[in-house]
Give the backbone structure.
Amino acid sequence: MIRTGNDLLSALDSILAPYAVKHSSSKGRVHEEADHNLRSPFQLDRDRIIHSKAFRRLKAKTQVLSPSTGDHFRDRLTHTLEVAQISRSLARNLSLNEDLAEAIALAHDLGHTPFGHAGEEALNTALQNYNLAFEHNEQSKRIVEHLENTYPEHPGLNLTFETLEGLQKHSTPYDQSNQSFVSATIEAQVVNKADEIAYNNHDIDDGIRSGILKIQDLEKLSIWPDLNINPCKFRMRYISEIMKSMLTDLIEQTLANISTMHIRSLGDVYSCDRTIVEFSDSMKLKAKELREFLYEYFYYSEVVSKQNEEQKRILTELFNYLVENPDSLPEDEFTKDDEVAIIAKDYISGMTDDFARLKYKEHAVS
């Protein structure tokens, strides 16, 4: 028997906790449209995100190390897929809406620039001369609302309000860390922590693989497991254990928070003035120690810093050229009412690493 319509939504909702976002009671979309008979609203969001141009371009954008430096380093797409996988696992264990969590996770980095956070910093600095700023979470939301022209009758992907809210309230120790996004759905909070868990762990792997991080230094961390097997040969086993400990701690502490905060409905989630999805105090200290280690020995290493400075220079010079030569901007691709600096920002942030280098050589150094 094929489940369709309300029967499908009821079946999906039957396994969710009272405080989860229900498939059958989404707040809807900016532009009303008929429900899909074979997919829930959040499954439809997920599919629209995966089929977007912005999602495909993530495969050629830097995470930390440029994809051109090695086949096995994470790019922005593999990072996104790892966040989505962790988000689904957390949502399942907490009886949350897996499809909503997955949709938010898959879209959370759509607005990222080429060259990772170096590109984001360069573009943000360049825009300050025009009283503007760049933040990739805001850009992700802008892409799905305005820049992906899927429908002739309206701009954007027309995602649900819940998915858009998850993008707006995406926050990790690196992303919008000065913001406090309480009253977000638990699904959105799960994606925030899944992002943190993903990059902390895959950056250990990329750091070791690149030769920048040393096993003997990692062994000094309190989160490093004692497995009594060769850490050089079986480093992924060590990383798997770190992820397992972080996930287990997060689930247990979140369930304890749900109990002590008396979260019994989605309304309770929205009215709660504290973050619900959190590590325990002991795991927070371990995660902080790991994060500080990665900053000192990996993100601020000579190799990565040299790469970042070169990438910042390319994006800064390319932005300045495009603003000064608006005829070089593509036609019929961006909102005509926007000022040139915003069009250049949208254009550059959507570029892959290689395309940014190509346009730099074509324009900025010609």
DSSP finds 16 helices and no strands in the chain. The CA atoms of residues 166 and 188 lie 5 Å apart.
